[in-house]
Amino acid sequence: MTSHKTHARRLMLAAVGTGAVLLGTSAPVSAQPPPPNCTAADLAGVMSGITAATSAYLFTHPPVNEFFTTLKDVPAEEKRATLQTYMDANPQVKADLTGIRQPAVDFRNRCGGGPGPVGPMGEG
Predict the structure, then answer these.
(1) Entry pTM
(2) Which residues cross the membrane (predicted)?
């Protein structure tokens, strides 16, 4: 048989524990919701659209596809300069890929953060 003091302590611990759980679960409710269209699902949709558009662009522009494919053999410290040289020599490709990546820029501007540069021109 437990004493009244032990029983009172258990009730007190249960009350404190319950209060902590209730406070812990109520905090997220009072947190600010993300701006409209700024959820993880929205980001995934934007990124998948960019990936699909980049793939389609590369398949329909074989020389560009070949260039980006050869980048895998370029040492990491040389990739940025190689990419910059290619883009400077091919302004239409640069404009096309910048346009494909624009939804990521829009998402980042609208939602405050989000992805960095993505697609074949992205530095990651």
Answers:
(1) 0.63
(2) none
Q: Is 11 exposed, middle or buried (0-12, 13-18, 19+ CB in 10 A)?
A: exposed
Q: Does 75 map to a domain?
A: yes
What's the CATH code of the domain at 45? 1.20.20.20
Distances (CA, A) of 98 to 8, 25, 39, 75, 106: 68, 43, 23, 24, 12
Q: What dihedral angle (degrees, nearest 10) is formed by the CA atoms of 67, 64, 124, 70?
A: -20
Buried b (16+ CB within 10 A) or exposed e, 49-58: ebeebbeebb
Total residues found in the chain within this entry: 124
The residue type of 108 is R
